[in-house]
Amino acid sequence: MPAFAADLIIEETPIAVLPVVGSSTGFYVGAHLGPTIIGVDYDPDVDPPELYQFSKPSLTAGIAFGWDTMLGSNLVGGIELRYDLFNAAFSPYEDALGADLYRFQDTLSLTGKLGYLVAPGTQVYGVLGFGSAGFSAFAGLDDETGRASGLVVGVGAETRLTDLLSATVDVRYFSAFDEYLVSNDTSFLPRYLAVTAGLKFRFDDGLGHMVEDPTQIDFDFTGPNVSVSALAVAASMERDILVPGADTGPFWSEGVGVGIGLGYDFDIGNGWVIGATANLDYTPLVFDDAAGNSPDVDAPTKFATVDTVISAGARLGFKTNPSTLVYGKLAIAGINTHANEEFFALDGGGSALLPAVQLGLGVETAIADQVTLGVEGNYTAATSPLVVNNSQPEQVDLWPTLLTGKVTLKYHF
User: Fold this and answer.
1) Cβ-contact 337, 135 below 8 angstroms
2) Which DSSP symbol is given to 206?
3) Nearest alpha-carbon partner for 131 in 78, 174, 189
4) With 0-12 CB in 10 A as exposed, 13-18 as middle and 19+ as buried, what is 325?
5) In sequence order, what DSSP letters do the residues of 228-280 get, joined into one string?
6) Which of 17, 159, 198, 224 has the fewest C-beta atoms lying within 10 Å of its C-beta?
7) What is the DSSP secondary-structure string of 154-177?
8) DSSP characters for 106-121?
9) Rounded Cα distance, 104 and 38, in Å
10) Tens-of-pLDDT digits for all 413 residues of the chain?
11) If you write DSSP's letter for every residue of 38-106 in order, what string do you get?
12) CB-based contacts of 88, cutoff 8 Å, min separation 6
């Protein structure tokens, strides 16, 4: 019996459609803004030698151009050209009549990047490369401009907001290789720590990176959590003393440390998360005044230390994807500050947990069912000083400010 086409039953074989994951592939342009603490080693070319470490809390803003490529299913490699504007003036002497000792202007850096795609559209990365810092320095009668080359190292996190737009939190450190000698034989060596938030526009949406059954954790942030953090800290200590010609600073210190934290978060719906946080960060920081407390070459130079910061506050975040949270935080804090009694006269030592305010921002993303990895930056400034005696009672006020970059591992119960 003849068969007709209309009588034929054709069974369609399903075509496997692989889900698409936004990877980190292609060129991008970005802009960023955030707090920074800049330090400079100043050698005034005197005998006996003295090396001052001054600081300047400030803001930085900049732009970046880069290219990323997937090195494997989750590994990301890239290169970035970045410009940062600072324009921060150093006037460390009381009654300096408006003259700036040093002005840190900008940096231009070229870095390589290695990252890991911890979730579709979210990566945690490290950067390493070289930078050139521009400055002007007082060189006798006139200012002298120059540039100092140095090392750039940092960590960050990036998460997609849309197919082409992403948000970043970046912690970056720069330190010049060598001192820059100006014409009057004084020398300067700059460094800084900066924490920036930014936006990147990617010219490639990364849809060419196809994987089968991508792992995307639908993470519920609701509940208690505990955390441990690795810290990088830059600090500034202003020594407010009303003596003409005195070096009031602020003075620079830097260090690494560890932190622990407790928290409780609530998923309030529509992607929003609110929570309470409490943290204890330990980083030993020492502040020195190279002039000492007397003309004696063996006079003590250490005048203050900071070791711990405790904080308690709240955070508000938004889930950019099922496993990633971008958030800001506000906290009250205490900075444990010590004045060296060997430096100040009239038994001018002492310790106090100085009240402070802390602002922070970060990106946190799930790496397991109950574990998250995050990058966070915190700016902590004292709201009241440590008042100490010197040649007069209650003559000196110590005002610490800290900028902290954190990489945090958190367990959610």
Assistant:
1) no
2) -
3) 174
4) buried
5) EEEEEEEEEEEEEE--TT-B---EEEEEEEEEEEEEEEEEEETTEEEEEEEEE
6) 17
7) EEEEEEESSSSEEEEEEEEEEEES
8) EEEEEEEEEEEEEETT
9) 8
10) 444 444 544 444 333 333 334 567 789 999 999 999 999 999 887 777 778 899 999 999 999 999 999 887 789 999 999 999 998 888 877 655 557 888 999 999 999 999 998 888 899 999 999 999 999 988 766 778 899 999 999 999 999 998 889 999 999 999 999 988 887 788 899 999 999 999 999 887 555 444 444 567 889 999 999 999 999 999 999 998 866 666 678 999 999 999 999 999 999 999 999 999 999 999 999 999 887 767 677 788 899 999 999 999 999 999 999 999 999 999 999 999 999 999 988 878 889 999 999 999 999 999 999 999 999 999 999 999 999 988 777 788 999 999 999 999 999 99
11) EEEEEE---SS---EEEEEEEEEEEEEEEEEEESSSSEEEEEEEEEEEEEEEE--BTT-TT--SEEEEE
12) 36, 38, 56, 58, 103, 104
Rounded (5°) CA angle 307-312-315? 125
CB 299 within 8 A of CB 293: yes
Distance CA 280, CA 225 (A): 14
CA–CA distances in Å: residue 107 to residues 75, 88, 144, 182: 28, 12, 17, 19
| 137: its two tokens | 């320095």
In sequence order, what are the beta bridge partners of 273?
Answer: 267, 317
Summarised one tens digit per residue, pLDDT across range 100-138 is 888 999 999 999 999 998 888 899 999 999 999 999 988
Question: How far is Cα 281 from Cα 261, in angstroms, rounded to an integer?
Answer: 9
Query: What structural domains and CATH numbers belong to the chain?
Result: 24-208 (2.40.160.20), 215-412 (2.40.160.20)
Token representation of residue 359:
């602002």
Q: Which 8-state DSSP code applies to residue 9?
A: -
- Residue 114, both tokens: 């290695």
215-231 in b/e burial notation, b at 16+ Cβ within 10 A? ebbebebeeebebebeb
The phi and psi torsions of 263 (rounded to 5 degrees) equal -160, 170
Q: Tens digit of pLDDT for each residue in 340-396?
A: 999 988 878 889 999 999 999 999 999 999 999 999 999 999 999 999 988 777 788
